[in-house]
Amino acid sequence: MLLLLLLALTGPRLNVGGRGLDVIVVADRSRSMSARSAANIQELILNLQNDIATRVNSGNRLGLVAVGSQAQIEYDLTDRIRQSEFVKVINPDGSDLNDGILTALDLVDPNRPARILVLSDGESNGVDPMSAARRAREDGVPIDCRLFERLRIGDIAIESVLLPESVVPLEPFQFSVWVYADQPG
Question: How far apart are CA 142 and CA 122, in angstroms?
């Protein structure tokens, strides 16, 4: 009885979907990613494609989701990848990682082991991606992240400008400007 209880608590799973692993890459293509980061992401994806192509009978499959202001499926899970460049047009003025992870989860076959690999700088301006991460945990799909650091040079913004309500033509006047800076400069 103790052995059955131990077995039930460990929650073993049986892989009935065949051999291999499904990997879905969520690639951030937003404007916040540097050109160098974009090249590194492309190289990582090509390495994954080459690895799957050289292990023909391994059963491994790769899928790719591109993320901008919304997510687009570049290609479904496959072991025969013929695409080396991004082809889907995305809006780079946003980074909705939540939508990217949810789109990747939609590609997952529940009968096969799967992983999601997020390649991003971690900047997200959509819904908080923690809700998608919770769903992935509930579905038993691990999420791995490769963080690409952004160069942080500081943030400066004009908070307000105070001008007089009216001024006679050619009359000198004073005005005030409030500037915000996250570091001295």
Answer: 17
Helix (H, G, I), strand (E, B) or coil at 167: coil
- Describe the crossing of helices 97-107 and 130-139 by its angle, rounded to 10 degrees: 20
Residues facing residue 78 across a β-bridge? 62
pTM for this prediction? 0.71
Give every CB contact of residue 93 below 8 A, 6+ residues apart in sequence.
Answer: 30, 31, 68, 69
| DSSP one-letter code for 43 | H
Nearest to 73 by CA among 133, 24, 136, 125: 24
156-162/176-181 β-pairing: antiparallel
Q: How far is CA 53 from CA 20, 40, 50, 99, 132, in A?
A: 13, 20, 5, 28, 30
pLDDT per residue, tens digit, the chain (185 aa), is: 777 777 777 766 555 555 788 999 999 999 888 888 888 998 998 888 888 877 766 788 899 999 999 999 998 888 887 777 888 888 998 889 999 999 999 999 988 899 999 999 888 888 899 999 999 999 999 999 998 877 667 778 889 999 999 999 999 999 999 998 888 87
